[in-house]
Design a protein that fits this description.
- The complex is a heterodimer.
- Chain A has a single domain, classed as Aconitase, domain 4.
- Helices cover about 30% and strands about 20% of the residues of chain A.
- Chain A contains 8 helices and 7 strands, in the order βαααβαβαβαβββαα.
- A 7-stranded mixed β-sheet of chain A has the order 4-3-2-1-5-6-7.
- In chain A, helix 4 crosses helix 5 and helix 5 packs across helix 7.
- Chain B folds into 2 domains: about 260 residues, 2-Layer Sandwich (Aconitase, domain 3), CATH 3.30.499.10; about 150 residues, Aconitase, domain 3, CATH 3.30.499.10.
- Chain B is about 30% helix and about 20% strand.
- Chain B is globular, with a radius of gyration of 21 Å.
- The chains are: A alpha/beta, B alpha/beta.
- Chains A and B meet through helix 5 and helix 8 of A and helix 4 of B.
């Protein structure tokens, strides 16, 4: 079970807000510093390791850029949203960010409330209100990559890419 | 119950009789496209094996010609990668240069009925070719390059049945702005286009719509195959292909009828395209600093022709920058021969070489603080083309060209009708 303090964002949060184009080729550290700089300046100084993002509909629409990696580098333990853009979801798998679609989650949390997520049965619980939601299960093979550091460790083990 | 176009392609590519929404499929990749960003030192991994060099295409597009030494190093690394693994289809700086999605169109590498991947979100542009094409992540692409396979969660499909034809002066971009404005996002859904109106849409127009599928947040944006597409593909690529038509009893989440003749010129307001479109008249008069026409979505020969038609014999308003970026050097050459480049340059436009360029705020047209731009490209997210305080309106090439002449957002019909004020009003 994963538990963390929630940060709330709205509908249609796009990749460019999480990773501005000007930093596409910057270091991961520089990219991490710029997360939500345009829409929520200062957020990266407030977020703490283990926190959870609660988003609205169509979370992560936009580019193939590794925005999920930046969230992971910020210490985000899980992303829960009403719905998640398919490409952002892929990058959550790719880079090892737990990302789960959970209808009703946006209304169920006020920012700062503590969220508990079970990847055994995909239940989501608001520790402050006691409300329990059923999230959409992530297929096991994809969940294993989300929790196992993403795609690259597998490709390394298979001898398809060199270890870094 | 029958299958939609992408379901049939997935069934073929995964060796199954049938796939349906909710399935997780692992498919064989027919074509994997790498871009210059794939080779950048902060992104690349040392690939030890590729599954099939003949199924790989490399197209440098985001940063070409190299604007800095890191880009130049990435280009050199990619050239060596192509040599090491025997990848013949390398589209380097020069006559073969272009935006990857436009390259795979110009060369018809995207074959009807096939599976194509690339680590850029607008890979869905190849859906115009009856191809199951979508953007994947960088690590996904490395997996596809090395294993020859990728995975998809199969989503439901929304079918758009097209009828009629767009009226003169109304473009595929206006149709997209109508869809995004009316129906909003299509997260986790595929969109499929067909119907009697399809024949009236040029291949270029279909490419615009398919590329913008990413902005609907759709998984796949796929068109039916018709005679025009077969002719286009066979003229460019001798490889055999098997188009996939949807089954008559295919299961759709919804079917929506679109009368193309009812479309009108629209503009998306800054920061989003989802439910953010208004008629041009509603924002006419909004002063602009830059007008941009380019990208996988709007850098086709048809787009340049439309821009040239609007600016012919006119001048870009003082204080406005009109930047036009053909999406391949093949398009650039054709536009030269057709006289479009001369018309644009004489009007005061800057015509750049083919690249993603200003569309993603990379180079050759980045916006400064507080500036206003109207763009015919893929995205108008906050900060997309440069400074986050810049405002980005999105419209068709005709509307963008007309706005450049007027100095403010304007309807092309008004400019061609002689009602422009040349930016002096």
């Amino acid at each position: 079970m994963i538990a963390g303090k929630t940060w709330k964002f709205g509908d249609n949060i796009n990749t460019d807000l999480m990773l501005p184009g000007a930093l596409l080729l910057a270091s991961e550290a520089e990219q991490m510093r710029a997360v939500f700089a345009a829409n929520r300046p200062g957020w990266v100084d407030q977020v703490q390791a283990g926190d959870i993002i609660v988003g609205g509909l169509n979370y992560g629409m936009g580019s193939s850029r590794p925005a999920a990696r930046s969230l992971r580098n910020c210490g985000i333990a899980a992303l829960l949203a009403e719905s998640i853009n398919g490409l952002f979801f892929r990058n959550a798998v790719n880079f090892g960010l737990l990302a789960i679609e959970c209808p009703g989650v946006h209304a169920a949390f006020a920012e700062g409330q503590v969220c508990e997520v079970s990847v055994a049965d995909f239940t989501v619980r608001n520790r402050d209100t006691g409300a329990v939601l059923q999230a959409q299960p992530v297929p096991q093979t994809l969940l294993d990559m989300m929790l196992g550091g993403g795609v690259y460790p597998t490709l390394e083990k298979q001898g398809l890419i060199a270890p870094r | 119950m029958g299958m939609t176009i992408v379901e049939k392609i997935f069934a073929r590519a995964s060796g199954q009789a049938r796939v349906a929404p909710g399935d997780l499929v692992v498919v064989d990749v027919d074509c994997a496209v790498m871009i210059d960003m794939s080779f950048h030192k902060n992104q690349r991994r040392d690939i030890l094996k590729v599954f099939d060099p003949e199924r790989i295409v490399i197209a440098y597009d985001h940063m070409v010609p190299a604007p800095d030494k890191d880009a130049a190093e990435a280009h050199a690394y990619g050239r060596e990668f192509a040599r090491r693994f025997g990848i013949a289809r390398l589209h380097d700086v020069g006559p073969d240069q272009g935006v990857s999605h436009a390259i795979v169109a110009d060369r018809a590498y995207a074959l009807p009925g096939s599976v194509l991947v690339c680590s850029d979100s607008h890979t869905c542009a190849s859906g115009a070719f009856n191809c199951a094409a979508r953007g994947i992540g960088g690590p996904d692409l490395v997996a596809a390059i090395t294993t020859g396979k990728t995975w998809y969660r199969v989503g439901e499909t929304v079918r758009y049945d097209l009828s009629g034809a767009l009226r003169p002066g109304v473009s595929a971009k206006d149709l997209f702005l109508h869809l995004a404005g009316t129906y909003g996002h299509h997260t986790n859904q595929n969109v499929e286009f067909g119907g009697p109106g399809l024949a009236s849409l040029s291949i270029d127009a279909r490419r615009t719509i398919a590329a913008m599928g990413a902005e609907l947040s759709a998984e796949f944006a796929t068109f039916e195959c018709d005679d025009a597409l077969v002719e286009y593909v066979t003229a460019r690529n001798p490889a055999p292909f098997s188009p996939q038509a949807p089954d008559p009893d295919a299961a759709y989440a919804e079917r929506r009828a679109i009368d193309l003749a009812a479309m009108t010129p629209l503009v998306a307001l800054p920061d989003a395209v989802i439910r953010n479109s208004v008629p041009v008249a509603e924002v006419a008069g909004e002063r602009i600093n830059q007008a941009y026409i380019g990208s996988c979505a709007n850098g086709t020969l048809s787009d340049l022709a439309e821009a040239a038609r609007v600016v012919k014999g006119r001048k870009v308003a003082p204080g406005v920058r009109l930047i036009v970026t053909p999406n391949t050097q093949v398009v650039y050459t054709a536009a030269l021969k057709a006289g479009y480049v001369e018309t644009l340059v004489e009007a005061g436009a800057v015509v750049t070489s083919a690249t993603c360029g200003a569309c993603f705020g990379g180079h050759m047209g980045v916006l400064g603080p507080g500036e206003t731009c109207i763009t015919a490209s893929t995205r108008n997210f906050k900060g997309r083309m440069g400074d986050p305080s810049a405002r980005i309106f999105m419209a068709s090439p005709a509307t963008v060209a007309a706005s450049a002449i007027a100095g403010h957002i304007a309807d092309a019909g008004d400019i061609i009708g002689g009602q422009a004020d040349g930016g002096r009003a």
